[in-house]
Amino acid sequence: MADELRILSTVPPSPKEAPSVVWHPGKIRKLAEIKAGHRVKFMAIQLAEPARGQLYAQGLIENRKARVIHNDHRGRVMLNLQGEIYLLGRRETAKIQVREYLPGHAT
Predict the structure, then answer these.
(1) The CATH number of the domain covering residues in 29-100
(2) Average pLDDT of 90-94?
């Protein structure tokens, strides 16, 4: 299972699959709700150990900024964090809270 790598399509999901979430700047949301292209700031990682420790060891910590590259709207999210690509599953993205990051604004 860990040796298997799924390739995520870059084709946007159909309107039936995409959640109808209205993005409000400054509002804290689950990472699973964020659409591709948005920059986010990690506010809280609410996973139990050892999963939280593994994310911290890889640099996914509170107050870091990242860009969402892909969201398949089933929970899997691909992030770009300082040039590194991370693929997170639905268990992680449902428990990570983020806020939209706008450079030059206090968030």
Answers:
(1) 2.30.30.90
(2) 92
